[in-house]
Design goal:
The longest helix is centred in the middle third of the chain and has 23 residues. 60% of the residues lie in helices and 18% in strands. A five-stranded antiparallel beta sheet has the order 1-2-3-4-5. By secondary structure, it is an alpha+beta fold. The protein has a single domain, classed as Tgt2/MlaC (Nuclear Transport Factor 2, Chain: A).
Amino acid sequence: MKKSILVALFAALCFNINLAHADINAAGAEDFVKKMTDEGIEDIINTNVSKAEKQSRFKKLFNDALDLDFIGKYVLGRYWKTATPEQRSDFINTYRELNTKVWSERFDEFKGRSFQFKGTTPSNSSGQIFVNTIVPMEQGEPATVVWRVKQDGDNFKIVDIIIEKVSLTMANRNEYTAFIKNNGNSIDALIANLKTKLK
């Protein structure tokens, strides 16, 4: 009897997970990332423009494609709840500027190359899915770039970029929450530190 109940519960759980995954438009998520890489990243990387212009284009691309409010809330962890509206706004704006700079330089490693799409992988997070890509390199194995995409209605936004198994949001969350903890639980101290890195 107990065994049959456990089987039923397991089946119900799997059914609910499958329903959650069924709500995600996998093809739409993949098309969204493909459009961004085709018309955004590859054009920016491969166009012969100044570093300042490249970063300006990346900023627009990231503002359009990434849900930075969602990401910012995640990377601050429990400190997001205690942050004032002004601190939240200041952090998001600073975080956006810093990531525009960092990732425009990081993606420059892919200059002259194209993203190859390798399907999607379900996520345990509701309304999210992973879009898998690789970038062939001159030497060694292709670089793996996985995009965590969140769907809201018919709209898609990227909420994480995972390069060579390193998650942007997880790395930032670990770094930022540790910094705040080691600096008197001061969110302002973190924001000041990020602004220093921008300079």
